[in-house]
């Protein structure tokens, strides 16, 4: 089952959400 996800996948998801937040903040500031 896909319930147990590897650490690499989790890290990628966290990095993706973090990058999206940074992009949104920069867009709002500019």
Architecture overview:
The protein has one domain (1-30). It has one helix and no strands. It is mainly α and 30 residues long. The longest helix has 23 residues, at 7-29.
Entry summary:
With 30 residues, the chain is mainly alpha-helical.
Core attributes:
3-oxoacid CoA-transferase, subunit A protein; mainly alpha; transferase activity; rod-shaped
Write the layout of secondary structure elements.
Blueprint: H1 7-29
Assess the beta-strand content as a share of residues: under 5%
How would you sum up the major sheet?
none
Radius of gyration using CA atoms only = 13 Å
Report the order of strands and helices: H
Estimated helix fraction? over 70%
Structural class: mainly alpha
């Amino acid at each position: 089952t896909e319930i147990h996800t590897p650490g690499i996948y989790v890290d990628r998801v966290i990095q993706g959400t973090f990058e999206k937040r940074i992009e949104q903040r920069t867009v709002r500031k500019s």
